[in-house]
Amino acid sequence: MILRRLVLSATSSSNLTRTQPLSVPTTRLLSSSPDRYTPSADTKLARLTHKDWLAPNEVLKIFETVKDPTFLIPAYRHYSKRKDYQPTEPLYALLINKLGHAKMFDEIERLVKSLTVEAKRCRFSEEFFYSLMKVYAMAGRINKAIEILFSMPEFGCWPSVKSFNFILNLLVKAKLFDEIHEIFVRAPKLGVEIDGCCLNILIKGLCESGNLEAALQVLDEFPKLKSRPNVMTFSPLLRGFCNKGEFEGAFGLLERMEKEGIEPDAITFNILISGLRRKGRVEEGVEVMERMKVRGCQPNSGTYQEVLYGLLDKKRNLEAGEMMRKMVSWGMRPSFLSYKKMVLGLCETKDVAEVDWVLRQMVSHGFVPKTGMWWKVVGCVVVKNKDSQRVLDRIIDRQGTSG
């Protein structure tokens, strides 16, 4: 399949390490956790020491009351020795959730190792494994999350494309582009059918790794899957072309979206406007904003902010001031950086009245001008001759404060 060849050629081989599951008794796996509590010390936990038969829902309520997460593993170990011990998915999910919130990830791994043994007595759903992968992702233990995905069939639970795409997206976010192909080509072994969302993730990864050619070829795979690309498909492609300064290709993608009946949204246009602004092509950015309005796509605060940045970069203070006034009147909040650029630019032209307005708006939006900015404002307001300006410049240099 062309997708497999594309991903293999776009990335190099990876060496993801795998941890072999341990087939040892549950109590032994959990015994490495120090026993720091006595069940009888807590009224609720004391029930674990009673001879009364405990139903699974009663056990769940007992563990829900445990506030100190360091007690969870010892308490579970104690429960696992009872004759009425019965492992359940809700109990495992509760323990993992509590340990995850406490960032006790080593304890989670010890608990997870017992799943292989308990699989004979307890059925686990995909949602359970999906939540577990999210916990490992939060801990930055990506290899462990991958191991969970590929171990699911051992528990009689085959992952859906939802779990598969979660891992792919996790690798893209972590910028582990070399590992994506290894996971992608193993999809058939998991019984996962590639969908449009999977292709979107793949395109995003290829674009972020700088391989736009391969990403465009993946784009051509949508019809073969009887799927249609969407705005999320084109956004990373547009950003990739803009980052490389290849605006002909970016505008070509925009035209392709229009031909295929895919309506660009404000984020799509903002990517293009931002790219043009970074290359100093402010006028074209303004034209793109006007093009948005003609197409019925309303510019948002991000759109106006990018155009404002462009005007400020070109020191077109008059137009920038008009844009800023419009944003404020529409309830938008210009960024601290745009206020700073505006103040410094106006100080150069000694436009005291305009500086006053900008500073008032800045403060009203919760921004506090820093020392360096105040020195510039003082220079704009009180300096009357060149000698005073030179004295003030020396004072500013000694401050060494930018802001």
From TrEMBL:
Domain of life: Eukaryota
InterPro entries: PPR_P_subfamily (IPR050872), PPR_rpt (IPR002885), TPR-like_helical_dom_sf (IPR011990), TPR_mt (IPR057027)
Alphabetized UniProt keyword annotations: Repeat
Alphabetized Pfam families for the sequence: PPR (PF01535), PPR_2 (PF13041), TPR_24 (PF23276)
Domain Pentatricopeptide repeat-containing protein-mitochondrial intervals: 118-220
Ranges: PPR repeats: 125-159, 195-229, 230-264, 265-299, 335-369
GO molecular function: mRNA binding
Stated family: Belongs to the PPR family. P subfamily.
PANTHER family with a match to the protein in the record: MITOCHONDRIAL GROUP I INTRON SPLICING FACTOR CCM1, PENTACOTRIPEPTIDE-REPEAT REGION OF PRORP DOMAIN-CONTAINING PROTEIN
Protein name: Pentatricopeptide repeat-containing protein-mitochondrial domain-containing protein
Species in which this protein is naturally found: Brassica campestris (Field mustard)
